[in-house]
Amino acid sequence: MPHSLQQQLDDFLAFATGDVLVWHDLTGAAYELGRRLNLPDDVKLYVETDTPRFELICALNNIAPDERAFVIRARRHRVEEDDWLADIEARAENFEPDLAGLSLVDIEPSATPSDPTAPEECAHDIELSAEAEQTEQDLQTSQIEPAGVWYTREAFREALKRAGIAASSDGEIAAATAAGYTLFADCVIRGDHDSPAEYYRMLFAAPLVTHDSLPTDMLSASSFKSYLSSAQAAGTVFGYDKDTWITTAGLQELEISRADLDAFAKESVAASVAAGIPQFTVPWLRANAPGIALLAYGLSDIFYESVLLSRKRFCTRGHLGGRRIFAEPHTQARGRDLVTSLLERESSLDIDELCEILTEEYDIDITIPQLVSLIRATNLFYSPELDRVYVSHDQFIREVE
What is the rounded CA–CA span in Å between residue 238 and residue 249? Predict the structure, then answer.
């Protein structure tokens, strides 16, 4: 059973790194549900049908460096030349929730099982039509099965064609069953599985799982991405480096326990609070809190960020310049919040000096124009004549008088 739509969105937003996130929805459910879902403060919702095109393009091209746009589009995910948002589509990350097992109330109150906008059912829930039964007989007679273990729906249809079987939607279900596969909304898997997640958990039984050990199509499948974000949020899978995941089995081999992960999050937050800045990044921790036990393992930033992302009860999260930012609970962790905290400590800083602090101490890649744009979205005061940032206009007056 997939998590609720809100939980799937929370997990997706926690691990998505792009500045534009898109939900392609053909059912019509997203239009209403998007307004009822809770979004973090750094995520701005845009519904394509509600926003004039020029206004939406301007908004997406001028996203603050510590914010993200969540766009709902009533069309399939395709990068096409005649699409006015083609450039955005080419770089956007896509939210593809697993709706197949959710209750109709959770998806769309007006949907019914006969409603063509209702989510596609699994193989177990559909009675085979006469045509489907004939397709099953054809497959058994042909003695030909697809050779793989996991397919996208489209790839499975191609496998059937190569086997000389032309199957309709019902026929595809019968063919999958006859060949020993289970059909799901976005994939077909060999064997009898209750859900794609059940199969994906089997793949993550090893201590380390490399990205290239899995089919490329699987990595982009919505069911896989939904499983992965849920597993990362639950703390059963973590990023190990840019090409590898580490599982609980891998942590056990390193003798790292769940208590160690909790302690790392708590100690990280305590270190930043003690330094007078509630926001922090992993590079800042390495330089300023080397005594934290888990840092002694010398693992990658990706791993430590993944641990902190899975410990949301101990810290909040945000981003700036491609770098994850964390903060003590009930404290904002956006880039603008880190900048504000630095100015509250220093009262004023030259813009070059502020940029240098962010780059060298926090490993945040940001340009001065981006930083100025960010500052103007806060209550800080920036003097372009002096190239200096002040904690307030009153502080500016005090210093220049």
Answer: 11
Question: Which residues are paired to 209 by β-bridges?
Answer: 245
| pLDDT tens per residue across span 362-379 | 999 999 999 999 999 899
- Nearest alpha carbon to residue 75 among 64, 83, 67: 83
pTM of the model: 0.78
Q: How far is CA 367 from CA 352, 373, 388, 397, in A?
A: 10, 10, 15, 27
Q: The dihedral of CA 281, 286, 288, 293: what is its sign?
A: positive
Query: What's the gap between Cα 322 and its chain centre?
Result: 14
CA atoms within 13 A on the CB side of 377: 19
CB 355 within 8 A of CB 368: yes
Q: Delimit the domains of the chain by residue range.
A: 1-118, 123-190, 258-400
User: Structure tokens of 267?
Assistant: 């100690």
Question: Six-digit token pair at 28?
Answer: 């019509």
- CA separation for the pair 73, 186 (Å, rounded): 19
Give me 68's structure tokens: 């993200």
**The length of the chain, given as a count of residues:** 401
pLDDT in tens, 1-42: 456 778 888 888 888 877 888 888 777 666 666 667 788 888
- What residues form DSSP beta bridges with 251? none
Cα–Cα dist 274/277, whole Å: 8
DSSP 322: T
The partner residues of 349 in beta bridges, in order of sequence, read 389
